[in-house]
Amino acid sequence: MNRPTLTTLLLASSFTLAACSTAPAPVTPPKPPSQTKTNIVKSSVKSSAKPTPKKTVTQTKQPVVSAKPAPAPTKKTTTTSTVKVATSQKVPTPKKVAKPKKVTTKPLTTKRAAQSIPKPVKPSIKAPKETVQKTAPTPIKPLPKVAAPTEPANSIGKETNISPSPALQMEVTLDSLPMNIGAWTLDRSSQSAQQCSLVSQKNAMPDGQGVTPIYLEITRNDAILFTKSNIDLSYPDSGLFIDQKKQASLGDLYTPTSVTFSAQYPSLINTLKNNANIEFRLGFWPSWPITQTYSTTLMTTNLPQALTALATCNNIL
What is the pLDDT of residue 99? Predict the structure, then answer.
């Protein structure tokens, strides 16, 4: 048999030491391995002095036996893991105590506050009825009718039909001028401040170039037809017409845009009194050469009453 050398013994002892060192700290290793270690050291010393095969055999077997208890520490390591699991148990945490909520009271809105306030009850006190004695009304004297001051009626663009009115009862004064009497307007004359005049409604008639206003003014001794366009008296169809019948020809030019009937004044006034309207036909220039005349109809209602007021107005001037 071969003798174990010193190196093999040292390796065996280091193996046993490593096996023991792997054991966990809390577990104490068995005593036999420590005794074998001392025996191995002693036997190694003895074998160097006196090599005896029998002793070496017994010494070599002990390290083999001592290596068997090495798996035991592995089982103990499993027990330590169970301890870790036990320590890892969850500790029940205390439940949070809910804080009491603050209760805030909202102020009443204006509508709710108004509804919550009871309405005051009005005392039902009836006032005593007063007895009023009825007396007969005193008669009021009728005031004279005074027409509002206006300009001559203007119906440019259309002819106005004015129905005749009954007899007018009025008081003519200078303060009441101008005043309307049917289709006429009584006022101071535009031609002379020393007399009054009657002005008919204003109409509009074509003049070949456009439209011109036309109206008739009556004074105490004249009647003038006014326009704003130059009048041409050479037209044979011009004149005064009633029911399509010519009653009189035009007079003389008063201005380039007006015609006077002073020579025909009495007959013209009678014609106007006896008819509700009268038609005037005129020709104008510069519509040259002569083409046609243009016509317009003026209302003459209430002319007798208007002429009476005209005479009164001239007397008080």
Answer: 63
